[in-house]
Design a protein that fits this description.
alpha/beta; about 50% helix; about 210 residues; 3-stranded antiparallel beta sheet; 9 helices; binds adenosine monophosphate; single chain
Length: about 210
């Protein structure tokens, strides 16, 4: 089963994707994570995308489609979760072509609905463990008082460079201009299901699982 998690920055796509990886053996394909890895390891492509990402603009379709193309032919044991991809109509068309060319299907597009105020609060408060990727939030799930990740014990916590108000405003505008048309695109293909993204992590997960088990 291959699914897309669709929603603005801060909707909780990454958090929900990680839960599905753990509980259902699915494979998370996050273009944001792939681009951050390229940037951190200083590859040519990483250098090209660094400024674009810091501003909160979208990286070119060509680059992100190339990243997904490489992964889609690889291991797909429990199905792919596309997280942060596609973000434009051209990317959505390319994904359809790539899946068809590898005899795979797109089984669900789950739109995570949240309001803008919640996004700003979530994003400016979030951090992750640099070692295992566990997510924290200053308000709802603070980093443990002993300064060690509750999952792996590492004390290397990170905040994303683009999780600041200026960049976030731009990321939201990019979402409304370029990504939100995908809601209509997948609705017209009868593939779209909306879930309320505002609840507790476990509640949102339960709504997603219900869609997957339908
Ligand atoms: P994310 O981690 O999904 O919030 O992505 C972080 C940043 O990476 C975005 O603000 C974009 O600059 C870039 N990015 C990630 N995925 C894509 C995509 N599918 N298309 C274009 N840019 C992307």
């Amino acid at each position: 089963m291959n699914i897309i998690l669709l929603g603005p920055p801060g909707a909780g796509k990454g958090t929900q994707a990680r839960q599905l990886v753990e509980t259902r053996n699915m494979v998370q394909l996050s273009t944001g994570d792939m681009l951050r890895e390229a940037k951190d390891s200083g590859t040519e492509m990483g250098k090209i995308v660094a400024d674009v990402m810091a501003r909160g603009d979208l990286v070119t379709d060509e680059i992100v489609i190339g990243l997904i193309r490489e992964k889609i032919e690889g291991d797909n044991k429990g199905g792919f979760i596309f997280d942060g991809f596609p973000r434009t109509l051209a990317q959505a068309d390319a994904l359809g072509d790539l899946l068809a060319a590898t005899n795979q299907t797109l089984d669900a597009v789950i739109e995570m609905e949240v309001d803008d105020d919640a996004l700003v609060t979530r994003i400016t408060a979030r951090s992750t463990c640099g070692n295992c990727g566990e997510g924290y939030n200053d308000q709802f799930k603070p980093q443990p008082a002993d300064g060690k990740c509750s999952v792996c014990g590492s004390s290397d916590f990170k905040r994303r460079a683009d999780d600041n108000e200026d960049s976030l405003r731009n990321r939201l505008m990019e979402y409304y201009k370029k990504t939100s048309p995908l809601i209509g695109y997948y609705y017209a293909k009868d593939a779209l299901t909306k879930v309320n993204g505002l609840g507790e992590i476990a509640e949102v997960q339960a709504s997603i699982v219900e869609v997957l088990d339908r």
